[in-house]
Amino acid sequence: MHRRSLLGLAAAGLAAPALAQPAFPSRPIRMVVPLPPGGATDIWARLVAEPMAASLGQPVVIENRAGAGGMIGTEAVKNAPPDGHTILFHIASFVQTPVVLRRWPYRIEDFAPLGKLGTTPLPFCVHADLPVTTLAEFVAYAKGRHLAYGTYSPGSSGHAFAQALSDLEGLDMTAVHYRGEAPMLQDVLGGRVDCAFHSMTGSGEQIRAGRIRPLATIGSMPIPSLPALPRFVSLGYPAYFGNSGFVGLFAPVQVPAPIQAQLAEAFRGAMAQPEVLQRLAGMDTIAQYLDPVAFGADVAAYLRFWQALVERLNLTAEG
């Protein structure tokens, strides 16, 4: 065989692995939601999954992996093959729960932020049978009664702010933790717990139907469909009641940068769809798209805020 032919074969052999690399995505993408179906996080994930699938040319399949305040599903994504076919759709519990439980099965550095969807108001609601219509009336009613409040996960915003309300007002309320908003909502509706912070996305229909009664909301902005509902900060509560969490998409940090960029672009495209924005507005979700770099800074800032708040409240999973 001529030397030129041997060189040609060698070159072809060297090029073969690159040519054989499959294009991304080569199969359906798993979007892990580390909370149960039916809650706000699940609803948001399904909303963006369809336009992302159209952009990527493969189905985006929602997989609910609840447990440990979202840590089980999050850790599963961290340990998944870093090929971009397993991604994480999460809320602020991503950093909240580990801080409160003092247990980190993952670090925020284990994930690459792909984009922020936005945030949601969290109104504090009571069972409709409670004889109160304002937060001041609730505080007066609750004193001496040892009420129970629900949380959609230990270490969440709903947990922290309900406990802060209880401590500030001397209410001695007891936390009852759930594996997501949907089961918590059912127990509030059934009167098995007296009150809780709810998302408008997961519970707005029940709020508008009068089955649970909102008294005030955390965050710095009014709820679009309930503009008259007071904010905690407008009622004189500490400034930290004006903070809001985040909703967004992540990938394991080891996923190659070009694949991260492709996923981020598909998410950006989904967030630019008028139908997506219209449906978010209809659920009282405040769209606040951020690109990967800005979202990463947002998550890091929220982690610092949350660590300081948990220390101030001395918050634990028990209350």
Automatic annotation (TrEMBL):
One Pfam family this sequence matches: TctC
Swiss-Prot/TrEMBL keywords: Signal
CDD domains reported for this sequence: PBP2_Bug_TTT (cd07012)
Leader sequence residues: 1-20
Record flagged with keyword Electron transport: no
Origin: domain of life: Bacteria
Transmembrane stretches, start-end: none
Matching InterPro entries: BUG (IPR005064), Bug_dom1 (IPR042100)
Database matches in PANTHER family: BLR1237 PROTEIN (PTHR42928:SF5), TRICARBOXYLATE-BINDING PROTEIN (PTHR42928)
Family: Belongs to the UPF0065 (bug) family.
Protein name per its UniProtKB record: Tripartite tricarboxylate transporter substrate binding protein
